[in-house]
Structures are given as structure tokens and as C-alpha cells.
Amino acid sequence: MQQKFVQHPDDALMNVTETPSLHLLNGTDDIWAQDFIEPGFASMPGSEGPISLRVLVQSAQSIRVSGRQVFESLRGDRVGGHQPSLGSGFGHEEINSGGNIEIIPPMDDGCCGYPSSIKFIKKAQDSGHGSTLATSYPNLRQPEGFSFCDSRLENLTIDALLSDDDFLQTQKYVQKYIDHNLELLLEELPLPHNEVLRIPALFKNFTYPWPSNLDGLPPRLHRAAPGQSQLIAFLPAAINGVVIGSDYLTAKRWGPIVDDHDILEQAVRDVYGQTGIKVHFVDDFMSHHVNGGEVHCGTNTLKDTRVEWWS
């Protein structure tokens, strides 16, 4: 399944505008590349352009063997590695996964400068995987060139789902939290509501103790807080993808087929098309979706260090 997943993004990359190279992280059988490494870089102005150093941050999970690839095979010329402090010492906890850290372009709010771009991260410690709720994308039709996405929206028929009251209540439940998290983000980011793209998504109730998992971490329980529910994507989530310039790689939706077209895939194309972004769908259903993740969770990207973000 993993080999099939790797082949699909590789094929999709042949059709993107800015074709990047694909590097396989084969050091372990951990399939969650987004979680055990967080790539970043430090740069400053130089006489002949930016002077930069890549820094690969290993997740704060000392017993997660896959993260050791930062030092065993990836660190090298102009590429550094960093292992953050474990803090409480519970290095296996999912809250310490790299997928809970999201990078956005530097933004000046006209008041406090660039710190406004990162302040909201400190307020999201209890939200779970941030990358599964929202993602940033380049707005090719706006001078700022940056906006934000929000995910709103088995052989079953559309009518059957629409008549399932439990299913409908689940959508209302999750929408309440999506709206709340979106408001938190927009409190910290100088973006108007009309810069937010709303991506159609469906969820299902997934509330039960998890005895074990397949993310490279020891078995542990994930119990829901009293009065709350645990949710998971009902169909592969299009919000959980990878932005490459003017192209977007995301999970194949496997949604309802109407007139020979997947109406959810078309809806995603239409929304991203508003900003000039072309969408490419990758089949991750068996490799990642059934295990609780999507394309973004199983991949990672290196940012362009030549960007003069200070100008």
C-alpha cells in the first residue's frame, strides 16, 4: 500500500508547474513523514542574495526512531538538525508530533510586525493535529499572495446520509469547533473572512479507546474528554494536502458520482480554482486514510530558502 502511495505523488509531480524532486524516507516503517520531522530554515540578507541554512527539527518524541533520520541521513552541507527539549518527558505523546506545527508566510499586521504570524501557535496546544483543520495556500490572484483554508462542509447513497440524524448532528458538532478555531486563527492573522476558502468535508464519530496505532509510537489510549466526541474524516480530507507553488496535491475524495463526475472532487477544484491553483488528487485511502491521515500527513516539504521574506 505504501509503495502505491509513493507512486501516485510521484506521477502527480510530473504535471505540476514547478516540478520538485521526491526523496523517500526509508529509514523506518513509520509512514507519517509530517510527524517525525519539521523542516525549517534560517536566512538573512547577503551581498549576493539570501544567506540561508536549512534546519530539520526532529519531533519532541525521543523514542520515535524515525525522527533520528534527521541526524543519521539528512543532516549535512547547509542542513542542520535540532532535537527540541522533551518538556514533560512524555516524548511519545501525539501532541508532540510535527504535524501539530504549521508554518505560514511572514505577515505584517501593520502594528506589531512579523511576530503576529507565529503568536497563535502558543494557543493551540490542546487542539490536536492542526494540519488537519486548516492549511495555508498561495493566492495567485491577490497582491498579498496568501490566504487560508477552512474545512466546512461505504456504499451509501446521498439520500441515506441526509436522512441519518446522527450523521447530520456530527456535522453540526464539528462545524462548531471549526468555526471556533477559525476565529482564533483570524484573531492572530491579519486576514479578512473573505480570504478564507471553505473546503467541503464530512466527518464521522470515532469515539472509543484506541488500544494501539500504526504511527510508530507505543500503544496508548485516546479517550475523549467528558462531554466531547472524537471525530475522523468520513471521506479522504481535501484540506490535508501539499501546496507546491500554483499546484495542490491532496487525497482523492472517493465521493458521490453524479453524471460520471465525483462531485466532491469538482467542488474542491472549483474552490481552489478561485485563486488560480490547480488540484491533483492522490489515492491514499488504504495507505493513510484508513489509519487516520491523508497526503499531508504522509509527506513533508522543504521551503524555498531563496525567498527574501524581509522585503
Automatic annotation (TrEMBL):
UniProt xrefs under Pfam families: PAD
One Gene Ontology molecular-function label: protein-arginine deiminase activity
Domain Protein-arginine deiminase C-terminal: 2-115, 117-310
UniProt cross-references to InterPro entries, sorted A to Z: PAD, PAD_C
Domain of life: Eukaryota
Gene Ontology cellular-component terms listed: cytoplasm
Protein name, as recorded: Protein-arginine deiminase C-terminal domain-containing protein
Lineage: Eukaryota, Fungi, Dikarya, Ascomycota, Pezizomycotina
